[in-house]
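[Q] Does anyone have a clean structure-token version of this?
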Amino acid sequence: MKEYKFMGNKKQKNELITGLDIGSNSIRIAVGQLIDREGVNPLLQIAALAQVSSEGVHKGMVTSIEEAVSSVSNALEQAEHIIGVPIEHVWVGMSGLNVICQQSKGVVAVAKADGEIGPEDVERAVQAARTVASPLNYEILHVIPKTFSVDGQTGIKDPVGMTGIRLEVDAQIIQASASNIKNLTKAVYRTGVDIDDLVLSILASGEAVITARQKELGVAVVDIGGSITNLIVYEEGDIIHTAVLPIGSDHVTNDIAIGLRTSIDAAERVKIDFGQCISRDISKKDMIDLNEAGNSMSEIVSRRYVAEIIEARMEEIMAKIDEELRKIGRSCLLPAGVVFTGGGAKITGLIELAKETLKLPASLGYPIDIQSVTDKINDLAFTTAVGLVKWGTQIQKHEGISTGNKFRGVDKVTEHVRKWFKSLVP
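[A] Here you go.
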């Protein structure tokens, strides 16, 4: 029987790390590695980026195992063709509407007689935080520590080496549908590769596009995908909120198709080639011939009318983002503003619209401190795949629970699910 390892194997320092982003419209793969540099921190370099159309996935959920396996296999083949070696294991991004986030607290007694807190005490505290009442058919995806308390002293980021009797941790618990976890991992395993771990997609995107200072000040990262929009909010270096909105750039395309009475393919081309989020700046005399966008017949439409269609739907997305910020009392109150990424963030005028509607600084999120041999690294659609590679390098540098690791306490899939994985292939 083939054995599947979830982060159980130590990686060589310069081993290739692969991020697999399974989206509703496209499947994207990024392959990278850490390059040693004398006297300075290693540099993450992306060696290959590949993209294929996605089949068998809708709103982050696998709807057809066979179609999803075929799409993932095609993406892997493309990436392997570029790098010239087979891909053996991947970090898989997970999203979907069935992801929930809640707060938890773990409390343990310090083990040593002299009261000095060690890494094992931190690990026990994090494990204690796992004991939450999960909804039916949900599994814990991540346990992310926020702050620690030692004998009532709060706000501690790293308790190792301190002295005390009682150690507490406030943690963020992220849970996902158990059936979606199983279907997603089954689709990946059937392609013949192992899974290093499952990672919430927006967590990976956030690690790729924002700095530690932005996280400290307060920032939101918004990933606009095809059928869903993911949101994560940071403050004082910690995650304070995550959300999945059931609306994305496909809704914009559908609106254009209905408004112009044209095909979905032509509407997509119109959105990409002529789309604008701000309609007032466009002259009423500015026209578009739909034949240039792939329409079967020549038809002249107003570019301003197209912009009005796009603007209405994008304003709805902004309203839903602001609604999530209001839930946590951060509407108009994030000093580092909102960083937009994902394929849906490429529509012209998005940042201007976001500044007007959200009353916050806004910018597009490109990967930070990452080099690549291809210009695709600056394609917003690849942010999650690149972020998964960066996530993998962080875990590789800090295997297991490490107080120096920002990703300490990121959970692996629970034991009975791991056993289930092993039974997939005889």
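[Q] Thanks! Anything notable?
[A] The two ends are 5 Å apart (CA to CA).
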